[in-house]
Amino acid sequence: MRQSIPNRDHMRLVRYLAAKRFGYRHPDYDDIVGAGSVALTNALRLFDPSRGFTFGTYVGRAIHSEFTKFMAKRRKELRVWPVDMTGASFPHESRRVGDSIANQQLSLDLESAMCELPRRQRYCVRLHLMMGVQQCRLAPFFGITRERIRQVIVTGLKMLRVQLGGEGGYS
User: Fold this and answer.
1) pLDDT tens, 142-171?
2) Which ranges in the chain belong to alpha helices (H)?
């Protein structure tokens, strides 16, 4: 009789394949393992040994296929973000330190300096540093590599430092 409930060894395989492909520190690691568990359950239910495959091969391919679908869905969710971020509020120090006139002025200066940046730099700096979106998620959104996103952010920060009266060089 075929087993239809995943056991500990099966789940270990899912975690191993998720870690091998994405790494344990991937921000969606738990979600990826969950998607792999769904694939594992389906594979246990649908596996037919008469087709000539070993169970390990069958379940491994099913899990990898589910990982690919999961990540494609995540990328699609990323593309839905609004592109016009001009009305977006961004956090500033006054929320942590308290509402002081100096912090409000700094926020206004930062907002006006951000408006001077080219659009892509402004969006990358705002999304990554002020809203916490990871560079690897910004790259497909803008259609450039993660390294190029990093360069755009560094250049944008240098321009902000110059505009706000700080140093323009490396820090």
Assistant:
1) 889 999 999 999 998 888 888 887 654 444
2) 8-22, 29-46, 55-79, 94-97, 101-116, 119-125, 135-142, 146-163
What pTM was computed for the model?
A: 0.43
Same domain? For 101 and 135 the reply is: yes
Q: Is residue 157 part of a domain?
A: yes
Q: For all residues of the chain together, what is the average pLDDT?
A: 77
Long-range contacts of 84-91 (CB under 8 A, 24+ apart): 85/122, 85/123, 85/126, 85/127, 88/126, 88/131, 90/126, 90/130, 90/131, 91/130
- For residue 130, give the CATH number of its domain: 1.10.10.10
2 within some domain: no
Q: Is 125 exposed, middle or buried (0-12, 13-18, 19+ CB in 10 A)?
A: buried
The verdict on 106 and 132 lying in the same domain is: yes
Give Cα separations from 95 to 63, 91, 110, 164 (angstroms).
Answer: 44, 7, 15, 21
Residue written as tokens 């389906």? Answer: 42
